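Fig. S4 source data, part A: sequence.
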Amino acid sequence: MQIAAGPAGPELYGTQQPLGPALTEALRKPGPVMIMLHGFTFAPGHGKDCPFRHILSLDPQSRCWKALSWPREMGFGQDHEDEGLGIGFGWSARGSIWRAYRAAATAGRALAALVDQVRCAAPDRPVHLLAHSLGARVALSALPHLPQGAIGRMILLHPAEFGGVAAQVLETPAGRSAEVINITSRENDLFDFLLERFIAPPARGDAALAQAMPRHPNTLTFQIDQTETLRVLGEIGFGIAPPGGRICHWSAYLRPGVFDLYRALLRQPRSYPLARLRALLPDRPDPRWSRMLRLPELRTGLSTRQRAAQP
């Protein structure tokens, strides 16, 4: 389903049909409910930047190199009996970064209203969130408006939000019961730095979530360009490609193999409890800027022994 944050709350995109009956009908198919949220520069109906023609479409119409279908990668559109319901949630993230940051909080209330409708129609179904960049702010902003247990897991990809904000919302009933998985990468350091410079943090010295995610039993951070993290994930069945560059804001969903991980975490949460993953993964991320400042590797076609043997 394609649902947008409208002036009066969530609404079906591109139709005058009321949301409630359509949602009830869509929830007849068993399985998890996953709500997917885009980040900055997207807005429903905005040409090539409409998320429903781009990453939130089963068949993206955009020719953009970043137009990978999140719904298909998360297992929707396969006609499986228990694939559940995938919802692309669009909101107006156009304009300046300051306007979009403010709009994300407003969209969070619309998201909470959508989750309430899902829970009302199907109270026993788990509701999970997958969000990128400023979409993570939308997801976190919904928590204060929801009851305990409303959200199962949320995966935040390169979240554009501050640790202080997360600390506050994680103390709400919905925040204490949700499991929050923070996907970070040193490839995103520049974008985190710019967020901290352009947006006033809630407290002096606060940092983006890549550096300041609260460490609670219900939170976990994956640094997906960390060598040890990739090794551990490979050993448990998730072969994720190594990073291809030093700076990239979109690698959290474009890197080959990452959606295999996200799909398992949301479709099989009991098979991958946070406590088990925490015990396997490195305890601390690499320092900020460690990827950008790393010296380039000098490679030749000869080994050290071969070079020494040369006259």
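Fig. S4 source data, part B ends here. The CA atoms of residues 3 and 13 lie 5 Å apart.
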